[in-house]
């Protein structure tokens, strides 16, 4: 008999009435009396479990009854429709075969565990309600992202992970090497001879796929990347990880407002898709992780996102009367407290801040007519702060070349990036979305370590 | 006026008849007489270009007429339906605005370039017919993959890129470090003090997400990874890259034949999807890259894949009468020449070889009853050889622990992997597909450097 998934039992309940079914799964709870017992069985296909009723007509009744939780079993039985009961159906087992008997010291006993503790057993935590919900939503959101861009005809680009250049011109990067750190080859100056390394030079882990994406946008018009990026920053906060995934769309012939429209549509699309595809998980988050989550997301889904210039935002902050920890002054970057004040208190919905001072933004952002600001935007969302950062790119070869020189960047690294302006350059714009930030936004989880399967942070690369 | 994409003009031609349109793109070719001219304009949304007709009624006629190829323009004009002509429509321009004037030394002049040369301008090559087709097919195949697994309810897992362990127990790995290679901290033994590194220990780039995927399969039942993997192997062949993307599904409660069925269904799904979504590109490959490509793919799409044991395959090879460069002997691994003989000459279609000698396969593969072979499979396909490698995993804790010990692997690294067997372990199986191999299979391209946007190989991490 072909096995059924518990998801199908819930989604297509009617079609199973009075049928025999076979399924497999793991025991979440088990209790028994002398002659019958109940198993709450979960097979990972669905957030909810199914109740298995078994009795001493099973020849292995006693063995089953004493199975530790998390043991895996194969069940054959009758599907019993119970529309009046709390659970709409249950399975009356005719055969239960033991697949794997768990050990009695299984760490996930039926009690509350702290998220901190669960991080130490990251290989087991997806079996808990919270993490099963988080990682299913993560998967659904990733699919929504691909689906959104595919429907719009965007080409998905796998930008390189190992890179010889530093996109931001400022990031702290991880070195990638095949050299033996205990037998480093030296050059004439007594320094490490990078020419002996695998790629013949120093290479690092990418901090962004943007420059590659720009190259492809000038061939395919609409492209996006979705891949891992890295920061070797020693910041032990709830919002930073050394390894995280980014989505970076890049659009030729687009100006800043065009990609703001795109970003708004994308965020709404993903919210809508996740609410539709994972209602059980989202209800769970709303009840147990962040009260009001669904209201917050529905608000973002239906509202027109706000739009305000940086200069106006500074004025709003100055006259707010709030006692901020960090100073508010034109020319200084916005801190999370400022960002959250703007979207949570002033706008009470997601808001784009645009046209930041050129000094606090990256070299590739397009200089505005005022010569003081660049065509950049950050999308600020309640509960998170910055979710997206984007800009129109500097397409004027001479302006870009001057900027690279002015910042003392290594011009040789950017020969090809400059050539994109020389050969068929055009207006183009794009943005980056930190995928983990989005998952935190969608689930209400507050620590980035709890939305990544196996997080990498300073001092931690376990599993 | 909202801009239209050239893809829409081709796919929904009827709806544009007698309409005014606005579009942007890059000039592929341009020719003119004194009073009128033709531009072949491509906007990246579609494999084909559109013909723009312009004449000296344009006030900037002379400027337009002398634009170098690859210049970008915005065109407004009338859509002229020409069903009798070679091209089913053209645009009669009323306005042409210059977006970006290209330089006359644009490297992609209208002549054939070698793939070797085009690798040196990887930032421009997606603008050529061949690479526009390759990278669009790559994008479509990636989407097909996500769509396939999504439809089957698989959870997409982002397995970690930076890792403290070595899945295969044998790979040559890249070291990841935040230490300054010119100021390495030393421990008491005078060696590099890895505890001072970012993660407090030595870390490397992953060679596979499988172990992580197993952890998640034992929570979600059906999962897959799709992410970059790395090999620091110094092999300069047409089939190896230091950085490539892998798809690794992992299925709980599945035995070897189950995942062979899954792999066969997946390969057919992707072939079908690409043929349907990229007919122009696939025709191009069939005409200009590999004659017979479409026959080969249609054959794979319709045939039942062959299935043969390694032991039988060795017999077939021995009695083949072929003069192989490498020896054929039970216990030796199959070489590409053997693999291709089996699928191209014997079966003339994709074939799964199963049950390899345990000595030549990885530690995690399940030992068969015969104590000599493991429940492993490779899928061999014409033109490529090995496309997929998979196995049933060793779920018996004591057998697995003994194997890890026997191979002298670092047991401490695998505590959590062993715990997956201790707590609710169950039969499970999975496989890995090298995504670039699949793209080579789908396009007929023969060098892996030509199916990766910016390839990383020994001595090369340009762009």
Automatic annotation (TrEMBL), chains A, B:
Homology family: Belongs to the class-II aminoacyl-tRNA synthetase family.
**What name does UniProt use for this protein?**
Asparagine--tRNA ligase
Which EC number(s) are documented for this chain? 6.1.1.22
User: What NCBIfam families does the record point to?
Assistant: asnS, PRK03932.1
Q: Name its GO BP terms in alphabetical order.
A: asparaginyl-tRNA aminoacylation
The cross-references to CDD domains, in alphabetical order and at most eight, read: AsxRS_core, EcAsnRS_like_N
Q: Show the catalytic activity.
A: tRNA(Asn) + L-asparagine + ATP = L-asparaginyl-tRNA(Asn) + AMP + diphosphate + H(+)
Q: Indicate where this protein resides in the cell.
A: Cytoplasm
Q: Name the keywords, alphabetized.
A: Aminoacyl-tRNA synthetase, ATP-binding, Cytoplasm, Ligase, Nucleotide-binding, Protein biosynthesis
Give the quaternary structure.
Answer: Homodimer.
Start and end residues of each Aminoacyl-transfer RNA synthetases class-II family profile domain: 135-453
Q: Which GO terms describe its cellular component?
A: cytoplasm
């Amino acid at each position: 008999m072909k096995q059924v998934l518990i998801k199908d039992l819930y989604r297509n309940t009617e079609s199973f009435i009075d049928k025999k079914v076979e399924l497999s799964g793991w025991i979440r709870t088990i209790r028994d009396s002398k002659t019958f017992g109940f198993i709450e069985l979960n097979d990972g296909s669905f957030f909810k479990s199914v109740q298995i009723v078994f009795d001493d007509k099973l020849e292995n009744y006693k063995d089953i009854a004493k199975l530790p939780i998390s043991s895996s079993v194969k069940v054959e039985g009758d599907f019993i429709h119970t529309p009046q009961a709390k659970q709409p159906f249950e399975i009356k087992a005719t055969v239960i075969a033991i697949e794997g008997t768990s050990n009695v010291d299984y760490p996930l006993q039926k009690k509350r565990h702290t998220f901190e503790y669960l991080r130490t057993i990251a290989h087991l935590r997806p079996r808990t309600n919270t993490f099963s919900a988080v990682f299913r939503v993560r998967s659904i959101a990733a699919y929504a992202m691909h689906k959104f861009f595919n429907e719009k005809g965007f080409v998905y680009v796998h930008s390189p992970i190992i890179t010889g250049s530093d996109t931001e011109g400022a990031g702290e990067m991880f070195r990638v090497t095949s050299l033996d750190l205990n037998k480093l080859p030296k050059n004439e100056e007594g320094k490490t001879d990078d020419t002996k390394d695998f790629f013949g030079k120093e290479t690092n882990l990418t901090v962004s796929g943007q420059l590659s994406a720009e190259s492809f946008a000038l061939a395919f018009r609409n492209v996006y990347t979705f891949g891992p990026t890295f920061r070797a920053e020693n910041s032990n906060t709830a919002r930073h990880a050394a390894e995280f995934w980014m989505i970076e769309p890049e659009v030729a012939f687009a100006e800043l407002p065009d990609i703001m429209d795109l970003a708004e549509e994308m965020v709404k699309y993903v919210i809508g898709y996740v609410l539709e595809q994972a209602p059980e998980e989202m209800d769970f988050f709303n009840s147990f992780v962040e009260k009001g989550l669904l209201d917050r997301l529905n608000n973002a889904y239906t509202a027109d996102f706000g739009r305000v210039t940086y200069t106006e935002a500074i004025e709003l902050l100055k006259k707010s009367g709030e006692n901020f920890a960090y100073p508010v002054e034109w020319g200084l970057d916005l801190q999370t407290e400022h960002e959250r004040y703007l979207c949570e208190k002033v706008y009470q919905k997601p808001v784009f801040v645009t046209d930041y001072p050129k000094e606090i933004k990256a070299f590739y952002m397009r200089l505005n007519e005022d010569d003081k600001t660049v065509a950049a935007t950050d999308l600020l969302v309640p509960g998170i702060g910055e979710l997206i950062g984007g800009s129109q790119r500097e397409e004027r070869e001479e302006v870009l070349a001057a900027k690279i020189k002015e910042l003392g960047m290594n011009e040789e690294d950017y020969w090809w990036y400059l050539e994109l302006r020389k050969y068929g350059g055009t207006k183009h714009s794009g943005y980056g979305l930190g995928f983990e930030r989005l998952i935190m936004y969608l689930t209400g989880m507050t620590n980035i370590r709890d939305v990544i399967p196996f997080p990498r942070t300073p001092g931690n690369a376990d599993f």
